[in-house]
Amino acid sequence: MLMATPENNLFTDTHIAFIGGGNMAGSLIGGLLHQALNATHIHVADPNASQLERLCQQFITLHTYADNLSAVRDVQVVVFAVKPQVFRDAARPLAATLAKNRPLIISIAAGIPEKNIRRWLGYDAAIVRVVPNTPALIGAGAAALYANPIVSSAQRTLAEDIFEAVGLALWLDDEVHMDAVTAVSGSGPAYFFLIMEIMEAAARELGLPADVARKLVQQTAYGAARMALESQDDPAALRKQVTSPGGTTAAALKILEAGKLREIFLNALTAARDRGAELSNEFGKEGS
Ligand SMILES: NC(=O)c1ccc[n+]([C@@H]2O[C@H](COP(=O)([O-])OP(=O)(O)OC[C@H]3O[C@@H](n4cnc5c(N)ncnc54)[C@H](OP(=O)(O)O)[C@@H]3O)[C@@H](O)[C@H]2O)c1
């Protein structure tokens, strides 16, 4: 992970504008500031005054704007952090200014192909499409990045450094995989939260005090994730290592397998992937 230090002045001269100041923008801004990006170099535009207020309370010195155009005038990077449904309407009024200044465009909108963004902006924009996730807020994000051929190697490095500042950043050569990434890591934290929620509720049903249930589930999730990250073994091998034949873990796993947990997850991730493709069709039709 990149750490901004006096010797590493990557962010010193880079101004970044966020179009949309919601959950993901907040996560990314939090992570970037944690890595010592100067808050005065962050510009956030959002028509929702309460979102801007929330960000200002959290991150005191960043610049906020009610209109998008003011935010993008003098920046090297523009991050579109709006919902896919509003992307086109947010992008089109900025086209002339962006065409003149040619900043790097970063899109985190699920399911919007870079060719649609180029069409909406009306010039051969350098675009990096990214699927991030919310643990970016604590520097533990997982992001997959795809750069169109117009992106320069310096811009590629900049995009990578921005997302490495908030976690893992992996490049994909083929944009076709972005919907699958959305299904796996973009939406992924919610699956783990659901499992933690379910385990906590079950622990309470088994009679554990609520605070004990919560702490045990949290630490178990953290410990399992750390073991998976730090071990040379794959998750299946790690699972087998903690499952004695005829033991307690085996009894639990038998129920989960009988409940077709694998099939349920495959169906769930396929639905998320397909929703990404649907959004792309819905909001990116030719001529729109
Ligand atoms: N949340 C995740 O875990 C996650 C993960 C990966 C990718 N993403 C992607 O990240 C993007 C943002 O998601 P989010 O969860 O951060 O959404 P969000 O919390 O709803 O934030 C979007 C913000 O954009 C504002 N907005 C609406 N129209 C705008 C416009 N024309 N110009 C500027 N801002 C405008 C919204 O205001 P209003 O509230 O008034 O509409 C809202 O404050 C989405 O495209 C999503 O697909 C999200």
Strand order of the largest sheet: 3-2-1-4-5-6-7-8
Q: Main β-sheet, in a few words?
A: 8 strands, mixed
User: Structural class from helices and strands?
Assistant: alpha/beta
**Residues in β-strands, percent:** 5-15%
Can you walk me through this structure?
The structure is a single chain. It is elongated and about 70 Å long. It contains 13 helices and eight strands. Strands 3-2-1-4-5-6-7-8 form an eight-stranded mixed β-sheet, with helices on both faces. Helix 7 links the parallel strand 7 (141-147) and strand 8. It is an alpha/beta fold and 288 residues long. It has helices at 23-34, 49-58, 68-72, 84-91, 95-101, 114-121, 153-164, 178-186, 188-205, 210-230, 235-241, 248-258, 261-283, and strands spanning 16-19, 42-45, 63-65, 77-80, 104-107, 127-131, 141-147, 167-171. The chain folds into two domains: 16-182, Rossmann fold (3-Layer(aba) Sandwich); 188-275, Orthogonal Bundle (ProC C-terminal domain-like fold). Helix 9 crosses helix 10 (210-230). The longest helix is centred in the C-terminal third of the chain and has 23 residues, at 261-283. Bound molecules: NADP nicotinamide-adenine-dinucleotide phosphate.
